Sequence to fold (667 residues):
Amino acid sequence: MDLATTTYLVVGFTFLVYIGIAIAARAGDTREFYVAGGGVHPVANGMATAADWMSAASFISMAGLIGISYNGYGGSVFLMGWTGGYVILAMLLAPYLRKYGKFTVPEFIGDRYYSDTARVVAVICLILCSVTYVIGQMKGIGVAFSRFLETDYETGLYTGMVIVFFYAVLGGMKGITYTQIAQYVVLILAYTIPAIFISLQLTGNPIPQLGLGSTLTGSDTYLLDKLDQVLAETGFKEYTTSVRLSTLNMFAYTASLMIGTAGLPHVIIRFFTVPKVRDARKSAGWALVFIAILYTTAPAVAAMARLNIMQTIEPMPGQNMEIEQRPAWFRTWEQTGLLTIEDKNGDGRLQYVADPERNELVKLDNDILVLANPEIARLPNWIIALVAAGGLAAALSTAAGLLLAISSAISHDLLKSTFYPSISEQMELNASRGAMALAVFGAGYLGLNPPGFAAGTVALAFGLAAASIFPALMMGIFSTRVTREGAVAGMVVGLGVTLFYVFQHKGVMFVSDWRFLPGLGSNWFFGIEPNAFGCVGAVINFAVAFGVTAITGAPPDRVRALVQEIRVPAGTTAATALH
Amino acid sequence: MSKLSEDQAQRYWQRNRSLMFRLLSIWFVVSFGCGIVGVDLLNQVQIGGYKLGFWFAQQGSIFVFIALIFYYVFAMARLDREFGVEED
Fold:
C-alpha cells in the first residue's frame, strides 16, 4: 500500500474514533458541559490533561527547537519550563480551585475579589491567552493535513474544524475529556515508536532516555560526545553546554514558562472535572507522568536526529555528501519548503556549517526533526502515517480544550454571572453551545487568515498567563487581604507591561513595521528576551497588587471565609460557620 | 464531617505551607540550581554519556518533579486524616 493510502486510513480511523466517542459522551446539562459532570477518574483526567496540554508545538516543533534552534542545552528551558509548572499547579492552585468547586477561572477571580470588574478583566486575560494559542493549533491542523495528506491547507483546516465542532459542541467538556484520552494514546505512540527505533539504530538501546547517554553502536564513543565533536568541527557551539543568550535569560525563560503553564485557564479547568480535592492533587501527578513520557523522549529525538542529519551530510570529516546522491527524504522535504539547499561554492557537495556565508543547508526547519524522523530512520509507511495522526491529535486536543475555556468564559462568566443572571439552565447550555460554535468559527477564520503574527503567539500566551492570571489566582488563595482594587490593578499592569515589552521588540500585534522605541536596543531589560519576560510581568503584578492593597480597605468578611474554606479539603472551618 | 476550630484550621494551613515550602525548595534546586545556575559545576561530573548538569536540565529535573508531586499527594493525604478533613 502506498504512503498516501495508508495515511488516509490511519488518520481516518482516528477521526472515526473521536466521532464515536463524541456520540457516546454527549453533555446533557451545564455541569456536564463545563466540567464533564465532575466525575472523571484522576488517572483519566491526567491523561486528558496531558493531551490538552501538549499542543502541535510540543509534538511537532519542540524536538527541533531543542536540537536545531537552541542547539541542545539551551533548549532545556522548554523541557524544565513546560513540566515544572505542574509542580506549582499541584501545590499552589489545583486543589484549592477544585475545592472552590465551580466551573471557570474568571468565576473564582470574580468571587474572590468580590467584583464584576475583576471577573471581566479575568475574562479578557483568558480570551487573549487562549485565542493567541488556538490560532497556532488551527495552523498546525492545516499544515499537518497539507503535508501528509497532500490536500491544500484550507481543506485540511475545514476538516479539522468539522471534527472539533462535532465533539466539542456536542459533548462539551465531557466529549472533550474522552476524546483527549484517545488522542493522548495516538500521539504518544506516534512520538515514542520512531524514537525507539532511532535510538536502537544509533545506540542499540531501545529506551531513548538511556540511549541518549549511551555509546554509539560499534564504537566506544558516547553519542553526546560525538555530537559535541561533530558540531565543533563544523563551527557550531558545543551541544551539551551552549547557553541560550545568558544564564539569567535561561533562568527567566524557564520561570516564565513554568508560571505561564500553571496559569493557563484551559489546563486549570481540567482539574475541575475530578470528584475530590485529593484527586486534583493526584491528577496533576499523573498528568506530569504522561507528559514526561514525551518530554524526556524529546531531548533524545533532538540529539539523535541532529547527529543523523550531520552525519548524513558529512559522514567523515571533509567527505561531504554529493548533492546528486542525497537521500529521498531530502527531496521530499525540499518540496514542502521546510528544507532548502544551495550549492554556494559549486563543488557539487553539501556543506552544513555554522558560518552563514558558507552554509549550504540554507533552510532547516525545526519541524523537520519530528516529521522526517521516520523517513530518516527508514521506518515503514504505517509509522509515517501514525506520525501524521499524532500531530493532528496533538493539535485537535489542545484546540478543543482552548475552545472550551473560551466558550465557558463567554456563556458562564459574561452571560450568566455578569450581564444576564436570570438566564435558565437550558438557555445557558444552549448559549454555551452557541459560544463554542462561534469560537470554532472564529478560530477557523483566524487560521485561514492568520494575522501575520501566528508564529509569535504561543510564546505570548505563556507570557500573558504568567503576568496576569497566575498571580491573581495565587494571591486569591494565599492571601486573605488582597483587595479587588489590588487584584485588578495587578492584572492590568502585569498584562500591560508584558505586552509593551513584547510589542516593543516585535512590533504591535507582531507587525514588524510597528516597532517602537528602537533606541532601547534589543533585550534591553537585563538581556532578557521577550519570550522570557512573563516572569518579570508576574513580579510586577504581585508588587502592584500588594501596593494597591496597602492603600485600599480590607476585603469583606465573606471573602476571608471563602479563602479559609477552600484551603481545607472537607468540612467547614469555624470562620465559615459564622456566616 | 468535623468542623475545624479557627486554631486547627490555621495549624493545618501552616503544616501544608511548610510542606510546600520544603518541596518547592527541592523543585527550585533541581531545575534552576542544578539545571541552570550550577550547571557548569555539575557538568564536571560524568555519568555514562551524560554530563550531570546537562542530565538534570534535560531529564533529571523532570523525574524529580514527578516524585515531588506524588510525595505531596501522599503527605497531604496523611495530613488530611490527621486533622479529620479527608473527603468521603
